[in-house]
Design brief:
alpha+beta; globular; two-stranded parallel ribbon
Length: 133
Amino acid sequence: MICVDANGIPIGIDTESANRNEVILIEPLLDKLALQNRQPERVIYDKAADSDKLRLRLAARDIDLICPHKKDRVSPPLQDGRKLRRYRRRWIVERTIAWLHNYRRIVTRWERHDFLYEGFVILGCAFTLLKRF
């Protein structure tokens, strides 16, 4: 999981097992942000984060979750369509992930220990940050 700012600069990463639900991984990622005294105003995510419980927990932290609703949603929608205009900028996150995929060691996890892999991801984020400036 990676959190980026509006310019695509990585500000937080969290590595977890691939078989974990993404909804429960969003809040630990927000806790591991590089800017500890600031939290984001909004989180833009894909349909995997369409959870009313997550929306309410993030709203308690004054964070607005912007994600489209799932097609088979049973409960009434909690956001109107105006906020989804910001969802169009999700390509910035995808571009940052593509920048990180320039490093072969990050694309496929070769390391046995998760702390080694997370170290290489942090190193890739640092190189990406240096290339941007």
